[in-house]
Every structure is written in C-alpha cells, then in structure tokens.
C-alpha cells in the first residue's frame, strides 16, 4: 500500500518531520542538528524517559471540550509549548523569522538565542511574544548592552542559559562547520550540498548564502561576528557566579528565566537570585553526557521551588503526550528545540506550524483520555511512574 504521506507537504508526526529533514539537508547540516555530546547517552535518555512514563486513562465521563492554554512569563499561550532558543538556524533561509511567524500563527511564544542568525528586532516584529536568551559571554558592559537592546526592542522576557561546559567531543563525529560561507568553503562543501538540491534551491531563490554570523552579539559600530568568533569569546569568558546572575537580573525589570537547572540546590539559588521562571534542562543532551533526562530531574525541582517560580521542562519532547507527562509532573509548560528545527528544515514556516499542530493534537488526545478538562488539572495520578524513575 502506498504511503499517503509520501508526497504530502503536511506530516503527521515529529518523527516524519525528522525523516524529511534528513532527506532535505546536506549531511553536515543534519549532523549538526543531531548533536549529543560524547556517547550521546543523555540525548537518548531524554526521549527514553518519556517512554518509561505511562498514562492512566479513563473511559467515561470524559470532558467534551478541553482547555489547553496556559500563561508563561506573563504571555498567554494557546498550548503549553514554547520555542526553545537555538543558535544559527541555517537549515532554512528565513531561519528564526520563519520560526517566529509560525509560533505567532499558533499562539506560541518564541525563544530567541543571542547566537541567532537574525536580529532580535526583526524576530520581535514577527512575534511580540519573544523571550531573548543570553549566554554569559564577554564583559558585564557587553551583557548590559545586550539587555538594554532587548528592552528597547520590546522583548517579553529574558532567558539566561547557564548549563554549557564546552563539552565538544562526540563519539558519533562532529560535522565540519565553517567559520564563514565564502567561495572556497562553498567549493569544499559542494559534494554534500549538491546531493541535496532542494535545500540549495531554497537559498538560491532567497538570493543569499547560509549566514553564519550572529548579529545579536555585535558590538556597536563593529563588524558582526561569525558564530565561531562569538563562541570563542564565550569560551574565554570566566563562568558566572550566583552574584553575577543576581547582577544580570537587576539589569532587567521584567520576567527572568534561568535555563539549565537540574539540581534542587541550584534551583534554590536561582530563586534567591531573582528568577521568575526556571527551565529544567540538560541542553538537549549537548552538555555533560550521562546527566539524567530532564524529565527525571523535574519532580524534585518542582517540589523544591514550584510554589515560588514557574518551572518549565526542556529536553526530549517529541509528541503531545510528552507535553502532558511533563505537566502532570508539575511543569507549567515545555520548551521544544530539535522538534521545530526538523519542521523548519522539512517545510519552512509551514513545517514549524505543522509540528506545533502535531503537538496540539497529541496534547488534546491525552487530556481527553485522562478525563481532564484542562491541562492545568493534570497531576502525577494521571501517570504510571516506574520505581526509581527520578534520581
């Protein structure tokens, strides 16, 4: 029997989006999205942990309509999903602009990385519900200038990502990512690119080459740095103290998320530093390998600080039931990364909208089956949790 989805631009699962992304992207680009540090054990556990959690459905007295919306960092969301900030999105010419438009079209907030390839002003214009993400890179003056720029642009909140320890070894191999895309680089990469003519055609139609610069980290009046130039600055910057975190929070008047927390003691320190939200995250398996899956760390963090700040979950979400499981364990919402990047690679803005629709459908089905009328009613009683699930 023929696959009815084979030539349909719309897809029915995030897994199908990933398959289409693999067929469309040059091998080095696809490999960069896969990532996963060292042996990739944390990357794998992020998804395996969700599979270990079971749902405990009812069969009657089910709610005929369900409320799926939540409010996160002051922003009303149609579903409990946010776009997690990821760096240079050169899988598609429109990159972060396409993602922001898709998120806005589906009533979802956008997280924009300081390492993004599009200026934050343009992204906020496409989606006013945009949170600007900052990594601790450069001097305090540089960081304060970035915060001021975000404020002037109208960012809805600030996200400080802390869990990055420059673990760069990958057993699966690291893709070659050039410093910049110039003619010699284009020639060197031609064999891989020519095997994916549709991806190349997207860029030809856009009249540009993949942009590996990071405009949101540019100093006033200075040339825009490339990704690796900015990454080098980040690597040479002494890591922040909790006093530094409190100082950065003092520079921002609005909502302030600390992203990358997996331990209770760190969660408590983040609250003391002034965080209004925490994202329980292991950086998608790209930080220290053998960290537990984010969802395993979630319940303890929720128990410690969930009555003081909003707690979100980031890592391994691929379907709507994953979202529901995270909320049942106490998360306010989840953040997605690779899932929307697969959609972007597969079909641009429409592909990201497609991924969000897939998640919405899965969330609604799970909430229906669990006999709840709202995602805000979910509790651990809706799950079958195996012994020893959490650390």
Automatic annotation (TrEMBL):
SUPFAM superfamilies: FMN-linked oxidoreductases. InterPro entries: Aldolase_TIM (IPR013785), Alpha-hydoxy_acid_DH_FMN (IPR012133), FMN-dep_DH (IPR000262), FMN_HAD (IPR037396), MftD (IPR023989). It comes from the Bacteria. PROSITE patterns: FMN_HYDROXY_ACID_DH_2 (PS51349). Keywords: Flavoprotein, FMN, Oxidoreductase. CDD domains: alpha_hydroxyacid_oxid_FMN. Gene3D superfamilies: Aldolase class I (3.20.20.70). Transmembrane segments: none annotated. Belongs to the FMN-dependent alpha-hydroxy acid dehydrogenase family. This is Mycofactocin biosynthesis FMN-dependent deaminase MftD. It comes from Kineosporia mesophila.
